[in-house]
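hi! just following up on the protien thing from before. the input was this:
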Amino acid sequence: MIYLMCPPEHFTVDYVINPWMDVETPVDRELALKQWDDLRRAVEDLGHVVHVLPAMPGLPDMVFAANGAFSVDGVVYGAKFRYPQRAAEADAHRAFYELAPDWRFVSPTQVNEGEGDFAYVPGRGLILAGYGFRTEPAAHAEAQEVLGRQVLSLRLVDPRFYHLDTALAVLDEHRITYYPGAFSESSQRLLASLFPDAVLADEADALAFALNLVSDGKNVLINADSVAYGEKLSAAGFRPVLVELGELKRGGGSIKCCINELRQAV
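and the predicted 3d structure came back as:
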């Protein structure tokens, strides 16, 4: 698998755009860089390829590379950030794809935050898409047209789980994992109907950012605070790989937020 990451060279918390950010608590950037590099090496040790997007001054959240775009089969649906503090990140991601010949980049007209609110279930050709806090529902229809895949809209109702990737993740070709309490009742019913074999997380798992994970279908990278959730993954037949990422969680993100999957054309 191929991933895109961006080092936290300019990471700090000097504004608040989610419930996890606290400008009163200083960030240890050196520790953040070490933890990010440990995560990058963990990904590579599993046999995957990591491309590195250069960090840009003035964009402290650029380390959360998952939010910059969403791709399926070589087609890239670009991001359009809700908050002005992150707006310029979209241009940096666009430049990355436009410099590579294997991608077809499509600029969005609707507010969306990339893989933060889009997840792809490859065995079903289905895109799960979140809305309620960042991504606009109109972006779901736009993504469906751009990517040629069915999009299922899911409403997020708890501001602590402001992106889909804090409450749901794809584990393999067909299975997902999620925390039901992050979703509206109707969205919960949809998920339960479509994914009866899902690995369910509880509130404690979700609050530890356990669901902000990356899976290659067998190995699942989760943050080191998610030991109890790791046991659930093991019971479901997956291999949890724990990585310490506590300093970056100060920005409201964990493993998945730092990793954008590059889904090239087959």
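The chain has a mean pLDDT of 97.
Residues 2-261 form a domain with the L-arginine/glycine Amidinotransferase; Chain A fold (CATH 3.75.10.10).
cheers
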